[in-house]
Amino acid sequence: MTDNSPVDGLLTDFFEAVNLRDLARCQTSLAKLDRLAVDDAAAGHWSAYCHAILLFEDKRDWAAAERIFTTMLQADMLQADLIPTLRARVLYAVGRTYIVQGRWQLAIDAYAHLLTPTTELKDPIEYIKAQRQTAIAYYRGYVAGEFDADVLHLGVHHCRKALDLSLIHISEPTRRTIPSRM
């Protein structure tokens, strides 16, 4: 993930703690990651991402999480300094923040960037999740009255792509480096 085993270990621990809702353990891992970030730019990027994840998951401060994610993406557009794996995770996470805020088209746009052939998604599960979230954004946007019924076929299309890929990989279990909901 980062080719930096101390950072990888802390990220694994952080995301396991997020999944378990063990916020004290999240904070401990994040504090250690922050200390590494002083001398390691990649650790700094991951630290910012993890802080935003905590804002999203723990505080439910979706706007603050969105600001961090979009700042990371804007900086990456100027400097191209995010590793592809992190860039993909940030795109997915910003899409989730848009969904919980009812900003359907922005979520769809974020996932569209994530699903481009140039985006590095090593884990097929990440691709499946992005397809599913795109379908959810179309559906919820329709239910909220923001989209007309003609977008529902787009949601179905993304669901089918997710299901097709799921069926292909169902017999080939993938080992996820960092388990997370985001």
How does the SSE layout of this entry go?
Elements lengths: L4 H16 L2 H15 L3 H19 L2 H18 L4 H17 L3 H11 L9 H20 L8 H18 L13
Helix pairs in contact: 1-2, 1-3, 2-3, 3-4, 3-5, 4-5, 5-6, 5-7, 6-7, 7-8
Describe the structure.
- The protein has helices spanning 5-20, 23-37, 41-59, 62-79, 84-100, 104-114, 124-143, 152-169.
- It has eight helices and no strands.
- The two termini are 15 Å apart.
- With 182 residues, the chain is mostly helical.
- The model is unreliable at 175-180 (pLDDT under 50).
- α5 packs antiparallel against α6 (104-114), α5 (84-100) packs parallel to α7 (124-143) and α7 (124-143) runs antiparallel to α8 (152-169).
What's the short story on this structure?
This protein is an all-alpha fold and 182 residues long. Helix content is 74%, strand content 0%.
List keywords for this structure.
8 helices, globular, mainly alpha
